[in-house]
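Check this.
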Amino acid sequence: MTHPVVQGVRAFADELVAIRRDIHAHPELGMTEARTSALVARFLRDLGIRVTEGVGRFGVVGTIEGRRPGNRAIGLRADMDALPIHEATGKPWASTRPGIMHACGHDGHTAMLLGAARWLAQHRDFAGTVHVIFQPAEEGLGGARAMLADGLFDRFPCDAVYGLHTRPDLPAGRFATRPGPALAAADRFRVRFLGTGGHGGSTPHRAVDLTVVQAHFVLGLQEIVGRNVPPVEPAVLSIGAIAGGVLEAPNVMPAEIVLSGTARSFSPAVRDLLERRVGELAHGLAALYGARAEVEYRRGTPATVNHPDQTRLALAAAADVVGEDAVDGAISPVTGAEDFALMLEARPGNFMFIGGGAGPDGTSPGLHTPEFDFNDETIPLGVAYWVSVVERELGVGSP
């Protein structure tokens, strides 16, 4: 039996799909979401919803009051920014901006929450307040932090906050989450090795060979994970870029090599360990080979940690929509990161995944790839999930 909200949303699903594809065709990177924010604000105002723009620069918050008396309030959050990737889907609604595309589903997240806002504005049979939160700059550019610094939960008090994200490796029609750590803390590091440089053909013995230093450093990072991190604790150290020397001058040994990478962890203790050991390894190897090292370690978002009570409610809300058999409440943690983690540090809540796979095997091209596109067939399911969360949080007989 189809959930009544799913049936109801189908009456205006085409409008939501059109909005999603319009956002997809006009992507904006983090902290440049002027067009998307204006579209969201206009849509909400047309529904008679009270709108606040400019929260954390480009964030938009819509406030929907229920008809029933109640003092509780919750937040529902979607992200709006795109990625610096050149799209290769070939779809009619493909990005019109070369080198920028919606490769993580934020266009779909925005459309689903707009659909929920429309439903809730037209069916206010709940007690309390719903704040629909449209966040800029989720992709590593500090959007959640900016909104929080701008007084998000002081200006729009929430007893709980919820997030929803598509997963193309999960078949459409399924939901998944877990209590506790669900996504990893994401940190960045940059190491600069400095030496003398030299002639790689005639006098390599007179030079400090930084290529050897960096080679041992890259291999040593994996020994940190394998021999310093407890075996039962997940951790990742990966190098994403190495720069040094000139390709047209292969006989010149570089006097500088720079490496940058990412560190992922779930527990604060492992996060501290990774930061310490990356620095120790770089400085130790540099000293061993007569070089110098400069290390910069930047902490990004913390681990996304779901709260148990709100996770139980989120699982029940998802089961209301698709049935218990299509809901997984014990998925393995994901070493991707999500700055919704900062909102979960400020308020209790849950981060839920909605299946977006549309291929014959139930999967689709991965997130952050040029071939990814959001599965529009899941929009009504996402809207219904949001409405179900509101019903369970603020409906008759709710806490």
User: Anything to note?
Assistant: The first helix runs from residue 4 to 9. The longest strand covers residues 68-79. The chain has a mean pLDDT of 97. The two ends are 27 Å apart (CA to CA).
